[in-house]
Amino acid sequence: MYLSREEERMLAGEEGEAVRKSMEILVTLGDIYGAGRLIPVKSAQVSGVSYKTIGDAGLEYLEDLSADAKVRIRTTLNPPGMDMEQWKELYVPEDFAEKQMRILNAYAKMGIELSCTCTPYLAGNRPKAGEHLAWAESSAVSFANSVLGARTNREGGPSALAAAITGRTAEFALHLNENRKATVIFDVNFEPDYFDYAMLGVVAGRIAGGGVPYFRGIKQASEDSLKSLGAAMAASGSVALYHVEGITPEYGTALPDKDGVKRIPVEEGMLEDEREKITTADDVELITVGCPHSSPEELRNIAAFLRGKKRKDKVELWVYTSRVVKETEREAVDIIEQYGKVVADTCMVVSPLEVRFRSVGTNSGKAASYLPGLCHQNVLFADLKTLLGMVVE
Amino acid sequence: MIIEGRRVYPMGGIKERGGLIVDRGEVVVSPSPVSFLGGVDPQTGIITDGEAKGKSIAGKVFVFPEGRGSTVGSYVMYGLKRYGNAPLAVVNRRSEIIVTVGAIISGIPLFDRVDTSLFLDGDILSIRGDGSMELHDVDVKDAVTVILRSREKILILKRSDKVGSCRGRWAGVSGHVEDEDGSFSARGITEVKEETGMQANIVREGPVLDIRDTCGEKKRIWRIHPFLADVSSEDADRMRIDWEHTEYRWIRPEELDSYHTAPGLADVVKLLLT
User: Fold this and answer.
1) Which residue of B14, B37, B104 is in closest CB contact with A28?
2) Which residues of chain A have a CB within 8 Å of the CB of B8?
3) Are strands A378-381 and A359-362 parallel, antiparallel or unpaired?
4) Cα separation, A44 vs A300, whole angstroms
């Protein structure tokens, strides 16, 4: 791989041990994946934040690294395992909270913003088309590539951190035009509504695997619908980029010149089959909404549905969002908090829900995919109105 | 035995590395892919999951096909280093991102593009910076294996108690080759005549295959020269076996899975028939 003289010096350790190690990660991965050079990245988004997922091994690594590591570009974090302000009310154990704070402190020491969200693009860091990034959260990677037209591979925690510390990443895979072409075409033979996108994402992700899906037949889709679609495909498969004909910014150049891309028709009935397959509970203790973190519109929709209705006692409601959105949408938050909790920073997948709950309802294809394995939950996968209907009369 | 691998880490780039990175390290093998998260205890260095469960990798050369599982595995490798239980080096068939990143953040040398099935626990291995490795005290011997075919079936023979290795296991017609034996195909035809009385008509020569001998007493790798040969149905009906075998069977290739065979037989059959 070609390195500039400055990069050679960084790799030689002239800018400290953390920079040297980070360069080693980028250059070695670049060599393995055939990158020709390093390119500057505009921002980084780092995964491996929840104590629940990275454990003591990750905590110790980050604390050691923070001794001399400093980030050079705007860097934010994925959700940690708890709401930083109201973790006690959310049944998070004391020792978990202590370890979680140590992880966050280590990141803060490196100069990383404690903006912890899977939707940085809704919380003040909205990349522009063509910008190169090093983002790790799979749903944010999908949104940045597909909906915003920015360019990022699906980074791991340490490689995103290496990019943050050096301001660079290796140029391979989705950073290059030729790898952003469609590999499978889905012909959607109906007009999906908001919840359909979650189910469609689970179906399409499983079929596409690590490929690049191209959707045909969708006439209009809100950003929230696309956020839900991409998150589900990144969970049931490992889709990091997709195109929607007539809607997403790169669809015009997405089809390869030669024929031979597989076409798969999607009927409405396939979605309901998928929903039933994933659903393992019909009576749940907790309703969780906001995976990925709720947008301002989603919070307002929930508030509008709940407003004035009478609360049932049995089922709890937790709505997840980023702290930025929680603070700017005070009116919707105040209404939702009469019926349940608005939880910031964390989410249902990376927090220790299992200490209190056994069954959860969600309208997220991503959460429905991960809750059984990561939180030992039985899952009701249903649309927002069905779920909220279990909370209010 | 010299094995050519590739150095992934430590990096070259600035000044190439040539010398010994591992000097006579002891090998520990996991035959299946390894997830460091949940698969290795960083506090003890002991493997806690899979076929290699219970073995320690601390201070050893850890050989396995490739990494798998959670990306947190990279941090577990760092934990091994931190608690003094890191392996001397890691040798993979294919390096993937979790083990690669783990090796870099922990300073553990990593090599790949090596046939990891050639190694056994307790082997002594030296590794040079250019990726070449010496497996000490393991000799390499040429051998021929002939898979005989008649009426869509292949012949397997059960090795007797009088042969040098892999007694009681099923194998093809085989024999080791000394320097003065001439061509490998001629040697194969002679072996078939001796062991079965049949005339072999060689129809295909497979690529040379190194197979670790896991049933003999010697530390040995067989460099197998595989051949596929047809025999006539008259010959097949008249065949007889000599002292080297106790039984024989004509089977369909897919039935091979249900027999306890000499190491590598399934690979040889697959290479010759596809």
Assistant:
1) B104
2) 28, 31-32
3) parallel
4) 29
Instruction: Indicate if A131 and A211 belong to the same structural domain.
Output: no
Counting one residue from chain A and one from chain B, the pairs whose CB atoms sit within 8 A come to 69
State whether residue B90 sits within 8 Å of chain A by CB. no
Give the range of the structural domain holding residue A332, as residue numbers without chain letter: 279-388
A267 and A333 inside one domain: no
Q: For chain A, what is the domain count?
A: 3
Contact by Cβ (8 Å): B75, A56: no
Q: Quick one: tokens of A266? A: 């999607």
Q: Do the Cβ atoms of B13 and A157 come within 8 Å? A: no
Of the candidates B127, B122, B123, which has an alpha carbon nearest to the alpha carbon of residue B136? B123
What CATH number was assigned to the domain covering residues B2-136?
A: 3.50.30.10
Q: Which residues on adjacent β-strands are paired with residue A116?
A: A77
Query: If pLDDT is split at 50, 70 and 90, which confidence band does B180 have?
Result: low
Scanning every residue of chain A, which has its alpha carbon at the shortest distance from the alpha carbon of B72?
A54
- Residues A257, A288, single domain; the answer is no
B8–A contact, CB cutoff 8 A: yes
Residue of B nearest to A154 (CA): B97
Residue A393: inside a domain, yes or no? no
d(CA A350, nearest CA chain B) in Å? 14
Is pLDDT of A42 > 50? Answer: yes
Question: DSSP characters for A300-356?
Answer: HHHHHHHTTPPBPSSSEEEEEE-HHHHHH-HHHHHHHHTTSEEEES--TTTS-GGGT
Identify the CATH number of the domain in which residue A92 sits. 3.30.499
CATH class of B139-273: alpha beta
**pLDDT of residue B15 exceeding 50:** no
Structural domain includes residue A118: yes
pLDDT digits (tens, 9 = 90+) for A168-213: 999 999 999 999 999 999 999 999 999 999 999 999 999 999 899 9
Q: Give B80-110 as a DSSP string.
A: HHHTT---SEEE-SS--HHHHHHHHHHT--E
For all residues of chain A together, what is the average pLDDT? 95
CB–CB of B11 and A12 under 8 A?
no
On whether residue A383 sits in a domain, the answer given is yes
State the complex-level ipTM.
0.76
Q: Is A25 in the B-facing interface, judged by CB distances under 8 Å?
A: yes
Residue A368 scores a pLDDT above 60: yes
Tell me: do A34 and A118 sit in the same domain: yes
Instruction: Give the best residue of B8, B44, B78 to mutate against chain A (max A CB count within 10 A).
Output: B78
Rounded Cα gap, residues A109 and A105, in angstroms: 6
Residues A234 and A313 in one domain: no
